[in-house]
Amino acid sequence: MGVLSGDRWYSCAVTNEIEQAVLAAVDDERIVAELRELVQIPSVDVTVAGSDVQAWCAQRLEKLGLRVDHWRLDLPRLASDPDFPGMEVERSDAWGCVGVLGGDETPGLILNGHVDVVPGSDFSARVEDGVMWGRGTCDMKGGVAAILGAVAAVVAAGIQLRKPLAVHTVIGEEDGGAGAFATLRRGHRGEACLIAEPTAGALIPANAGSLTFRLEVPGLATHGSTRSRGVSAIEKFTLVQAALLELEAARNLDPHPLLAHLDLANPLSVGTISAGDWASTVPDKLIAEGRYGVRLGEPLVEARNAFERAIATACAKDDWLREHPVKVSWPGGAFASGVLSDGDPLLAETAQAVADTGRPAPEVRGAPYGSDLRQYAAAGIPTLQYGPGDVRYAHAADEHVVLADVLHAARTYALLAVRRCG
Predict the structure, then answer these.
(1) Partners of residue 293 on adjacent β-strands
(2) Fewer beta carbons below 10 Å: N end or C end of the chain?
(3) Is beta strand 206-207 parallel, antiparallel or unpaired with respect to 126-128?
(4) Using an 8 Å Cβ cutoff, are 61 and 170 in contact?
């Protein structure tokens, strides 16, 4: 094993025969082939392929000899739970999938990956110069393929685990986290969890959160030729937008140390605006929706209250909005923040596994986006993220993943699995 000195890791070569065996059993061709199959399933959340991909995962895990729990989610019951994280797309069918290798006790490690993707048109999974292109390659089917490759290596090496190893594939991460919520509510737990989200070589022990907001700004309609008789909702929104910019600036004055490397640790962005129904009519309503960053450690209720106070303060300064205030609502997913506790051994153990499989000591930093990390952390399961790909290419027209990074991740997961479970 390696040692931690200051901020640097010094690694030793893997000498344990079991660890050597599992690394030797990683099948690169199998991992690339399975990633291609995964990407070619267009598992956008609003399509039936979102269920097809979970069936694919369940079949793969069963073939590896894992005990598989593949179940249909009771969406109405889940949505009635006061802690439900929300959904931004309508689903009529959704499935969970958990595979466990080993005994019946609590797994020593969970390897988690979401199999849903955002809309896109390229599901070709074409490979050029060691890079696979297409929707989901980076976010995050590259990580899922690496997980499957790691588990396959443990099985192929014939390692008898002291503690079980679990695989959680989940849906709905992109729009709230319904899949992880359902998995945890079903009772699937572990001593620690590694999520294979794309991290560009870094270890991510903390995620800021995010909320989707909706603003309805009232106006008073009249003919455009007599606009002074009316009130333009568009003009009133400019006052609201100024207040939002002030709020964003205030919430970024003292970022959490894990997010201090970012230019905006807690961004606030208006994503859509709609107003008016006729060119020569003063618009009497404007609807704006956007994304609001939740600070690390900040309860969602406090984040919402800060936002609503800023809007109320802006309204109080304007004669029209004082009498006709902006309506604030919170549709869609609710991503709380999440963080790995200081000193938890999962961080050091994962860093050592990265180093012992041939990569430089990883940087440790937080991420400004929401993920399922916060759900596992809220359930009392130490969780961090490490996976192939760069989040800058997630959801992008040029989404891709370097295959060497996928194969390295598989080796890292396999080594971590045998160290925690074997």
Answers:
(1) 210
(2) N
(3) unpaired
(4) no
Burial pattern 129-160, b for ≥16 Cβ within 10 A else e, equals eeebbbbbbbbbbbbbbbbbbbbbbbbbbebe
pTM: 0.90
Instruction: Count CB-CB contacts under 10 A for residue 99.
Output: 25
**How many other CB atoms are there within 10 angstroms of residue 9's CB atom?**
18
Q: How crowded is the C-beta side of 311, counted as CA atoms within 13 Å?
A: 19
Each residue's pLDDT tens digit, 250-298 = 999 999 999 999 999 999 999 999 999 999 999 999 999 999 999 999 9
| Distances in whole angstroms, Cα of residue 14 to Cα of each of 2, 105, 149 | 10, 28, 19
Residue-level pLDDT at 13: 55
Strand partners, 126: 133
What pairs with residue 95 in β-bridges? 72
E-strand stretches of 173-320: 193-195, 206-207, 209-218, 268-275, 285-294
Tell me how far apart the alpha carbons of residues 57 and 116 are, in angstroms, rounded to a whole number.
Answer: 12
Contact 193, 381 (CB under 8 A): yes
Element (H, E) at 338: strand 338-339
Instruction: Write down the residue that tokens 């002074």 correspond to.
Output: 228
DSSP-derived letter for residue 140 is I
Give CA–CA dist 362/364, Å, rounded: 6
Give the pair of three-digit tokens for residue 236: 């009133």
Is the Cα torsion angle 338, 384, 138, 175 positive or negative in sign?
Answer: negative
Backbone angles phi, psi at 48, to 5 degrees: -65, -20
Confidence of residue 6 (pLDDT cuts 50, 70, 90): very low
Residues 199-250: pLDDT tens digits?
999 999 999 999 999 999 999 999 999 999 999 999 999 999 999 999 999 9
Check: CB of residue 393 under 8 Å from CB of residue 138: yes
Residue 91 pairs in a beta bridge with: none
Cα-flanking dihedrals φ and ψ of residue 33, to 5°?
Answer: -65, -40
Number of alpha helices (DSSP H) and beta strands (DSSP E) in the chain: 12, 18
Structure tokens at 180: 């992880």
Burial of 52 (0-12, 13-18, 19+ CB in 10 A): middle
For residues 55 and 65, give the distance between their C-alpha atoms in angstroms, rounded to a whole number: 15
Whether 314 and 321 have beta carbons less than 8 Å apart is answered as yes
Distance CA(370)–CA(336), nearest Å, equals: 7
